[in-house]
Amino acid sequence: MLGKSKGDGTNYDRDLSSVQQTPRSAVASSGTPEVSSISSGLSIVGKIVGHGAVTIFGHVEGELRASTVVIAEGAQMEGDVVAEELTIGGHIKGTIHANRVKLNDAVVEGDIFHRTLAIEENARFEGTSRRNENTIDTPSRVQTNRHQPLAGSFDGNGKANGEPDGLNR
């Protein structure tokens, strides 16, 4: 329990309250971009959508969308990557759509659609490269494809509500 210690006169409540007074928004608005990462001991299957920078150290199988993506050395990505800026030091097998692509110590198997592409000396690339002026327009165009409701509703029998029962599909 926090409070005054009987012997040393220290006021832990005062120390704790000074820490709690730092507003969360001050930390978030410090200008440092948000960076998410998948550690080397982690393997993920599915769709990842980041609203900032994403760094992969582990294994991802699926789709990855973020404004800035780094596939670190030793990381593996199987699937499509959509990003404003993509730096690869690991292994990717899939299709890449990014305005700026840089292959460091990378192994890439698949197609790259890009505005600029830089391939370092130790990188390996097997696939096709297609230059597009606007592969993705802006970081905000990296869309999340959120679920949108259907125009009509359906009952458990697969029929739209209000649909006559005798209608054959």
Tell me about this structure.
The chain has a domain of 103 residues. It is mostly beta strands. The chain is built from 2 helices and 12 strands, in the order H-H-E-E-E-E-E-E-E-E-E-E-E-E. The longest helix has 9 residues. It is globular and about 30 Å long. Helix content is 8%, strand content 40%. The termini are far apart. Strands 1, 2, 3, 4, 5, 6, 7, 8, 9, 10, 11 and 12 form a 12-stranded parallel β-sheet that branches.
Nutshell version of this structure?
The chain is mostly beta strands and 169 residues long.
Descriptive labels:
2 helices, twelve-stranded parallel β-sheet, 12 strands, 169 residues, mainly beta, globular
Indicate the topology.
Layout lengths: L11 H9 L3 H5 L6 E4 L4 E7 L3 E4 L2 E13 L4 E3 L2 E8 L2 E3 L2 E8 L3 E3 L2 E8 L4 E3 L2 E3 L38
Parallel strand pairs: 1-3, 2-4, 3-4, 4-5, 4-6, 5-7, 6-8, 7-9, 8-10, 9-11, 10-12
Low-confidence stretches: 1-29, 138-169
Determine Rg (CA atoms, Å). Answer: 24 Å
How would you spell out the order of helices and strands?
A: HHEEEEEEEEEEEE
Largest sheet: 12 strands, parallel
End-to-end separation: 68 Å
Q: What is the number of strand segments?
A: 12
Quaternary state, please? Answer: single chain
Instruction: Label the overall shape.
Output: globular
Give the helix tally.
Answer: 2
Helix content percent band? under 10%
Percentage of residues in strands: 35-45%
Q: Averaging pLDDT over every residue, what do you get?
A: 75
Structural class: mainly beta
